[in-house]
Design brief:
It is a single chain. With 372 residues, the chain is an alpha/beta fold. The chain folds into 2 domains: 1-41 and 333-372, Urease, subunit C, domain 1 (Roll), CATH 2.30.40.10; 43-329, Alpha-Beta Barrel (TIM Barrel), CATH 3.20.20.140. Helices cover 27% and strands 27% of the residues. It contains 10 helices and 20 strands. The protein has helices spanning 60-71, 87-102, 138-145, 162-171, 185-194, 215-223, 238-247, 298-307, 312-319, 321-327, and strands at 2-9, 12-20, 24-29, 38-41, 43-48, 50-51, 54-55, 75-82, 110-117, 150-155, 175-178, 198-199, 226-230, 250-254, 266-270, 273-278, 281-284, 343-346, 352-357, 360-361. It has a 7-stranded mixed β-sheet, with no helix packed on it. It has a 6-stranded parallel β-sheet with strand order 5-8-9-10-11-12, with helices on both faces. It has a 3-stranded antiparallel β-sheet with strand order 15-16-17, with no helix packed on it. A hairpin with a 5-residue loop joins strand 18 and strand 19 (352-357). The N and C termini lie close together (7 Å). Mean pLDDT is 96; it is low at 367-372.
Length: 372
């Protein structure tokens, strides 16, 4: 298969033709014209709970439904992200993620494994998480690891046993992220030295930055190598995101999307909690104010970034190359010979024309003009 346009190569955007099957075969420079489409690496979402009406805590079919939904918005790979829950419920969700990971279906985002967002969170910083927070338990994590590939785990570093668990998981290559935490900046620095890799939805559900109470945000900006940030413009204001982009070399975007993404206004659920979709946000029904995940998709995140003054090459990296690098996946996030043919085709308005997952088109996407 071949597609022509402005292709994002390791040398930047270049006009030419990309040949691919399951993997990229070659890129050949050739003139294509100013109105030709963009060809970018497929998006990778490392923190997503649901979408298209489905919540990944609800089992295998729900996870496949959300994976199909996000694939239609350019996400070619994702981490199934769980919520704080009772052990049996968490085990069921992780077991289902393992089944989808091992047997991907057509037109689905590839499930790369699991991001455990909790349950080892500070109960005073749960945000929209259900009230099942508990102290770190290495045995519980080991039992979940037998069911699916555990790629990332969010915890509060101030909890008893958190530093020991951080060191243990880091030694096994699992990314420990700091989030839903009331830690001080010093406690966050200690966790980084113990092996923590990054920060979960930076700025949200963590201690903020004040000049004499620097908090976890200050530790992230001063010491962080990696951090995720929600790119919907609601969770984090534009200038705060740009400040993090300047300070953190491995900043990358996530959706933190929940079931209401892609759905009309109304009542949905997040890990059993009632959520109202209202406008461009999702809020806990109980108070109507607490943000409960987002309704963002990564194609919209790309448009947001560009509208905030970030160039398309860097914006693409925040959605593809950096998440792939963070997880240590060298054959994703780039369009080079030998890499997986996960790519998106967009028009000049950055609207999706086509999506390919391992070289296979996602059905329902309009064909790119002039594609051959």
């Amino acid at each position: 298969m071949k597609r022509s346009g402005r292709v994002l190569t390791p040398l930047g955007l270049q006009e030419g033709e990309l040949e691919f099957a399951e993997r990229v075969v070659a890129f050949r420079p050739l003139p294509v014209g100013q109105d030709s489409p963009y060809l970018l690496p497929g998006f990778i979402d490392l923190h997503v709970h649901g979408g298209g009406g489905a919540d990944c805590m609800d089992g295998e079919e729900a996870l496949r439904q959300m994976a199909r939904f996000h694939a239609s918005h350019g996400t070619t790979a994702l981490l199934a992200t769980t919520l704080t829950a009772a052990p049996p419920e968490l085990e069921r969700a992780v077991r289902a993620a393992g089944r989808v990971e091992r047997a991907p279906g057509p037109a689905e985002s590839a499930v790369l494994g699991v991001h455990l967002e909790g349950p080892f969170l500070n109960p005073e910083r749960l945000g929209a998480q259900p009230p099942w927070a508990r102290d770190p338990d290495p045995g519980e994590v080991r039992s979940l690891e037998r069911l699916a590939t555990l790629r990332a785990l969010t915890l509060a570093p101030e909890l008893p046993g958190a530093l020991e668990l951080t060191a243990e998981l880091a030694a096994r290559g699992i990314r420990v992220q700091l989030g839903h935490t009331a830690a001080t900046a010093e406690q966050a620095e200690i966790a980084l030295r113990a092996g923590a890799s990054g920060f979960t939805h930076l700025y949200n559900a963590m201690t903020g930055l004040r000049q004499r109470q620097p908090g976890v945000v200050a530790a992230a900006l001063a010491r962080g190598r990696w951090a995720e940030v929600i790119g919907d413009g609601l969770h984090v204001e534009r200038l705060a995101l740009l400040a993090a982009l300047r300070a953190i070399p491995g900043l990358y975007l996530i959706t933190d999307a929940m079931a209401a993404a892609g759905m009309p206004p109304g009542r949905y659920h997040l890990g059993g909690q009632a959520v109202l979709r209202r406008g461009a946000g999702a809020y806990l029904e109980g108070d109507g104010r607490t943000l409960a995940g987002s309704v963002l998709t990564l194609d919209q995140a790309l448009r947001n970034l560009v509208s905030w003054g970030i160039g398309i090459e860097l914006a693409s990296a925040l959605l593809s190359a950096r998440p792939a690098h963070y997880l240590g996946l060298p054959d994703r996030g780039h369009l080079v010979a030998g890499s997986r043919a996960d790519l998106v085709v967009l028009n000049s308005k950055l609207e999706l024309l086509e999506v390919f997952v391992a070289g296979l088109p996602v059905p329902g996407m309009p064909a790119a003009s002039g594609a051959g």
